[in-house]
Records
---
Amino acid sequence: MNMNRILLTATLCFSAIQLFFAQSEAKAPTEKTATENLFIVTLDGFRWQEVFGGADSALLFNREYIHDSTYYVQKFWAGSPSSRRQTLLPFFWTTIARQGQIYGNRHLENKVNVSNGMWFSYPGYNEIFTGNPDDKNIYSNDKIPNPNTNVLEFLNRQKGFEGKIAAFSSWDVFPWILNEKRSGILVNSAIEDIEGVSSPTARLLNQLQHQQPMLWEEGVRLDFLTWAIMREYVASNHPRVVYVGLDETDDDAHEGRYDLYLSVAHQADSWLSELWQFIENDPQYRGKTTLFITCDHGRGDKVKKQWRDHGAKVEDSSEIWFAVLGPDSKPTGEVRQPGQYYQKQFAQTFAHLLGQHFICEHEVGQAIESVLNR
Ligand SMILES: [Zn+2]
């Protein structure tokens, strides 16, 4: 190689490096955000169809899915989709609809999809937290340590966030999905005693979770226990980033129990409402906390019993939704403009909300700007 070529190569390398930094700077948050704390909540396999339309008549009135629907019709049925969704998810359709943002109503061409090709849980949660669909390595729900760095462990290494990240889940695969061993963050999953809280309530919850009836399979904790354990931990430790993975919507749908599926979603909505009230009354969290709610995958449509299922062979089950409520997100309510968003964009959105820029060994989907434009 002659001198000119060396010079040329050096100049090109330098330009490439400059370009790299210019790009990563351009994508990094430019203004300081108000969000200092973040709560992420997922409802496993909960469909956008119910989020935006409430109870589905084709399922609610089908004796195959609800043996006696009298009670559920009384509770969740109403004449129009907008009153049905309000009845099923009152916190979504009052507080979030007025003060936050709700994405994914495909009737309005507002679309959210997973980018992975699997359309089930581990690949979905991997995509949410790493910002990168990885069909090559993540193609089952097996307990395999996730090789990909996730945004929670990235945050745990940033100044002011160390030891202030906590994850709670009903499903016992999360210690692998979030690679608890490598990431060093707290991952409390079914059925595991909560550490770091010594209150009488924490002791009681630790006892109770070992007494729950086994409804589906070993390794799934009932959502109300996961939620209560999270609440007790948050009240006493005040972490800055909290993740809660609820599970029952998916289990009930697989069982073909539309009554239970609706009930647990309705219950989750009321927990979210109560959590938001707590946030608004707590000096660390008030005005400085964003709540982000989504799911890992969708489900099939009502035809051919496909609503019970999901996966690459089940049409439409890559369709998801998300909602956000917090000081950095404009109160646009239900997003009615056509648009296309992807699950792989969530991780960088979480980081940007907290004024951070997620960089790791793999590519990360771009942050969703409309979430951050107050
Ligand atoms: Zn499932």
---
Amino acid sequence: MTEQYGTDGETAPSARTWSGDVVVVGAGTAGCYAAATVAREGYDVVVVERKNEKEAGHIACGDALKGADAFPEAIPKEKIQPAFTNTDVDHGRFEIPKEDTVLEIPVPGELAVIDRWEYGRRIIDGAKDAGAEFHYDTVVQDVTQEDGRVTGVRAKRDGDVVEYESELLVDAAGSLSILQDKADFSDSTFDTNVTYSQFCSAYREIVHVEEPVEWDDALVFKPTTRAAGYLWYFPRTSTEINAGLGFQMNEEPMTLVEDLKRDLRNRPEFHGATVEDKLGAALPTRRPYDSAVAPGYMAVGDAAGHVNPTTGGGIAGAAYAGKYAGEQAIEALEVGDVSEHTLWRYNQRVMDHFGSRYAGLDIYNIFTTAVDVDDLMGMLGALPTEKLSEALYSGSANIGWRLKLQTAIDARDHWRFIYDLYKTKNVADEIIDHYDHYPTDPRGLPAWQEVRDDLMDKVYATTGAAPKY
Ligand SMILES: Cc1cc2nc3c(=O)[nH]c(=O)nc-3n(C[C@H](O)[C@H](O)[C@H](O)COP(=O)(O)OP(=O)(O)OC[C@H]3O[C@@H](n4cnc5c(N)ncnc54)[C@H](O)[C@@H]3O)c2cc1C
């Protein structure tokens, strides 16, 4: 690794160059896990982050972490565990005011609500302990390429241009990553079928209440009243609540700050509450990128759509994508080949682990954009909760015979809706099955995409939804 500082003359800004094995852009979950994975093996890794050292790790989030028990080892779990402020959460509490119903649905697996900024600082420390270097206050503005291969990035720090050169670039710059606007992917498999309408706009506040809330063992969800959106109340502790809301960007925009304020005012447990922190951001609520690689380049986490599109949960996906990209970077560096062919295994591991499940769940997301929210809530209110829990977390929404029977008895008013959901489930299962046959080689991608796109046409025909891709 070399770092050179120079100047082109009295009026020109000083030019600096960092060169090494891997440049990671973004010090979030995906970037820290990718950097830690590569640095642990002794390679030169720098993480370039636009925020300053104090702000780094401060990310807009609901702070709910699912699957914390099985996080990648590149950053030891004991390192992040002190940021898990509430590990007693074991169910979702769905408030459906229009139906005057509250559903309590168990959530399988380890669940925690965390102090997100503390967690953010701890994963940065973990990546540093593994040997990664961090450059803060450094805003990446451009991607450099040579003969179709990505060779690095150009950034600005303190008004100076800083050049980064590396064998591999990991794009962990989050939702709507600017790197993807700058790079030319025309000769690669990299997925560029990405538009803002496949994202959700979300906002959250950290609120302190005087008296402990009664639901400190639950993740609370509620539909918004004024537009097709959702609210959440996630207890970091019994008196510190992450309260937020979001809406899909293909829907009519909500006034997030005002709408949250309105709901908070109407909840007695928040009388006299104080707001400690406010943040908002976009998050991908879409299927994972068909391919997140190009020669010399891998995108991870939000930058590659690695978020559960129905819950908005993206921390675990980002951590695993970081691990898989890091391991693939090591292999590419060892064989001295950063072509798509070598990097392809990264795509496969993402699809195997969670990508195909998320692509299946995306179909339910599409379904909900085409239905009446009141119908949806009415039907949810009529379902048996333990079966609903299985359905929600199995990915394939495996609605068993007991659920069908119970539903037929309890939800007679919603039979048309349930039949549409049933048909949608069948196409979602076909999609998941097709993702289970994700190509083993970049050359197989076009044929695989053709079949998938035919299945998506079936989804739009079944649901009546406008095409999302
Ligand atoms: C309001 C909200 C609530 C959410 N709630 C949850 C939840 O409860 N549970 C859950 O699991 N997930 C939740 N998510 C999603 C989750 O936060 C993300 O999926 C996760 O943080 C993705 O991690 P990442 O590393 O890919 O990106 P990020 O954490 O966004 O990190 C990207 C980093 O890149 C940096 N960066 C961006 N551009 C540049 C640039 N040009 N130059 C240099 N640096 C740059 C950013 O400053 C940032 O530090 C929520 C998201 C939002 C917006």
